[in-house]
């Protein structure tokens, strides 16, 4: 199966650069990322520190006065 996905040029450039570093086509790298993400149970998923900080900031409540 194939599909079309629109990505910003800057993002596609980053994907191509990472794929080139690994010596594989960009589409193979994207397929690998999708497969790994789908196969990883949510309880074992890794998130970035930046995403965690953003979540905390968005959900922080001021202490009761």
Features:
single chain; mainly alpha; 65 residues
Q: What is the overall pLDDT average? A: 89
> Number of helical runs?
3
Structural classification: mainly alpha
Give Rg in angstroms. 17 Å
Strands, total number: 0
Report strand %: under 5%
Order of helices and strands: HHH
Number of domains: 1
**Intertermini distance:** 57 Å
Instruction: Give the overall silhouette.
Output: elongated
The profile of the biggest β sheet is: none
Question: Considering DSSP H and I runs of 4 or more, what fraction of the residues is helical?
Answer: 55-70%
Low-confidence stretches: none
Could you give a quick summary of the protein structure above?
The protein is mainly α and 65 residues long. The protein has helices at residues 9-22, 26-39, 49-59. It has one domain.
């Amino acid at each position: 199966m194939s599909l079309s996905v629109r990505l910003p040029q800057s993002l596609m450039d980053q994907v191509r650069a990472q794929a080139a570093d690994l010596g594989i086509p960009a589409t193979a790298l994207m397929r690998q990322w999708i497969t790994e993400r789908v196969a990883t149970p949510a309880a074992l998923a890794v998130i970035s520190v930046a995403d965690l900080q953003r979540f905390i900031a968005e959900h922080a409540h001021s202490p009761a006065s």
